[in-house]
Write the structure tokens for this entry.
Amino acid sequence: MAVCEETEQAGRRVNRLPLHARWRRIVTGLLLTVAFLTGMIAPTAHADDAAATGAAETTTSSTITLTSATAVVTSTSGYHLTAMITNTGKTAWSAGTVSLYVNPMYTFVSRTDMQEWSQNENRIPTPSSLGSASVPEIAPGATATVSIDVKADDGALGRIANWGPKPLLLSYAHDDDSAQLRTFLTRSSDGLGNATPAMKITVAMPLTSSHWTANSEGLEGLVTGDTTTNTSANANTGDGDTSSSSVAAAALDQDHARFDRTLAQTMTKHAGLQTIADPTYLDALAMPPQVTAVMQPAGFDITTYAAKGDAQAYANAGVGTDQWNAQSALGHYRDAIGDQQASTRTVAWQGNAKWTLKALTEARRQGYDTVIATHDFDSSSSGTVHTGTAVVPTEAGDVTVLVEQRELSNLVKGKATSRRAKAEATEAGRLARFVAQSAFYQMEQPYTDRNLLVCFDQSAAAATVDAFMTAIEQSSWLQLTDLDTLAKATPHVTGEDAAAEVPDEAKLTDAKATDLDNTLSALTASHGDIIRFRDAILDATSNGSSAWIDTLLAAHNELALHALSSDGGSAGVQDASRTVSAGTRQLADDLLGGVHLTPSEAVTMVSETASMPVTISNTTAYPVTIRVSSITDSPEIVTSRTNTVTIAPRSESQVTFTLRAATSGSTAAHVTLLDRTDQAFGLAQDTPITCVLKISDKTGFVIIGLAVLLGILGLWRQFNRKKDPDE
């Protein structure tokens, strides 16, 4: 019955193949049938049956993890596989065996066919053994590593007559239990003589940093003008240098400029890798690498900006379009390489929301005629793959959208095609699937000119990039191209057809929208505090004060720009964004807190009037002019209300309040700093006041004299009054 079912399924697949392929499949099917009936492949039938039913996978507690495998098999490569066997049970497992099986004659006929194989949902025989390895006894919770090495002239490998992906089954048996893992073996056309034209593929990688942090010492130095704690770039900002490089060095910690040397080596090794860099990251590096193009500065999230639809909210936070437009990106790039005449392509990378027509229009308006869509643009999930370009008309002009191929890009980003595709839980499994999937895509339409875009994410490790790029370079059915070639390729859709594929809604998640609102609110508050200091506290008549405050604003806005970057779903980038945002608060607090009250001692009054000195410190780099207010809780002990004072930079000034008392007692004077609009800022201070009036003036003597007279008068009346007869 099982053989009949397999023959029936094979027949349905054969009907969809070209005539010459049908004959080949028919002959292969007949040979397999004869083999099963004569018992020629009986030793591997058990493995096939177990794979078909999937029962062992659902009942066993063992785990097979694919750790490495030959991605592309050539005529000389052989096949090498390493796996880990983990005992997740509660008792020890006795020694067992890992076996590797393949079907050298099978050709996948659809994407569904491949997906079902990876998910253990279809019945594809794997009759040919590639080898086996012994597994020692495994204690509970322990792991054993096994390897299988197959020589290039091995019989099973030698029987592969056609290039492309083949079903590969890894089986583990111990005691009376077993488990299987399904993956793919992909044979190149090397040595087979049946190659077809290669399919073009463009691989892009964003070059950004997830280590941005606020430079606390640098920000403090900007406020105080103390260059001893800053870099040389910071020292320049003290003189009003607001260039992007110097401001970034002052505002952002140099730890963010870490560049993985291994990644640099990988980029050099794979010349076909298209790197699209954050130009502010390049600007921060001592020796920036060569890149293909630059994206919006700090990876500013244009899609979320368009979804928010409130340019004023961003401006209030200190981020204007001039900070992230294409011209600004080019400026950062020129600063980074030290050539003010240099030019490079500018490409807008997708943020957390979708590329809606509104977002595309905004990108085009800011100078980006090319954007990369890394998710949720191509809605089609059926049909053959196509060139990943669309030319979308907008009010600001046409925009070329480079759309990543979803399945291949997800695999290089560390995402399995399905949670049920167990082998793809590891990079080795995803790499095997990537190679197999790309081969199948080329086989679907071998003579159609197509160029697929594959995108890494910004957190891709150098080893991952190297592994996938090496596999692509070894894949005879793929031809690496550059970004310009992809952008100039005949687009998949244009005009109204392209506009129809543009997402209608940004689909920004509620969590992302809340984070955005909170970030904008915090940035607006810190930006407003610096503006307030400039307009109502700083003594603007001082030479250089205007340039200094402009530098502080530039530093704030540089931090704000990075706080509003796209996180790409990376936790590290989200944390960096929060840290950078906190830096803007520190800058504003350092600035306002730089003008503060110096603690005063308690005041004791021994007369009706007294003086209360108050000292104000200014630790900022320029003079300030403010008002100082004082008020008490008692109507009997009062102070003069306000004093205006100018405090020189990095110094102190003292003002004196007059105290008046009508009686002895105690109270507290509440001293507050006011800006020139009479709005309080900084920390208030309470100064205790104690009044002990002494009789030491003319008024006191008059009171004493009156008291004596009254006493004498009272005694005289007591002795000279007439007594009542009844007394």
